[in-house]
Amino acid sequence: MSAIIDVRHVNKAFGGLHVINDCSIQVEEGSVTGLIGPNGAGKSTLFNIIAGALPLDSGQILLDGEDITNRPANELFHKGLLRTFQIAHEFSQLTALENLMMVPPDQPGESLAKAWFAPKAVRAQEAEVKRRAQEVIEFIGLNHVRNELAGNLSGGQKKLLELGRTMMTDARVVLLDEIAAGVNRTLLGDLIGNIERMNREFGYTFLVIEHDMDMIARLCDPVIVLAQGSVMVEGSIEEIQNNPEVIEAYFGAGAA
Ligand SMILES: Nc1ncnc2c1ncn2[C@@H]1O[C@H](COP(=O)(O)OP(=O)(O)OP(=O)(O)O)[C@@H](O)[C@H]1O
Question: What is the ipTM of this complex?
Answer without folding.
Answer: 0.97
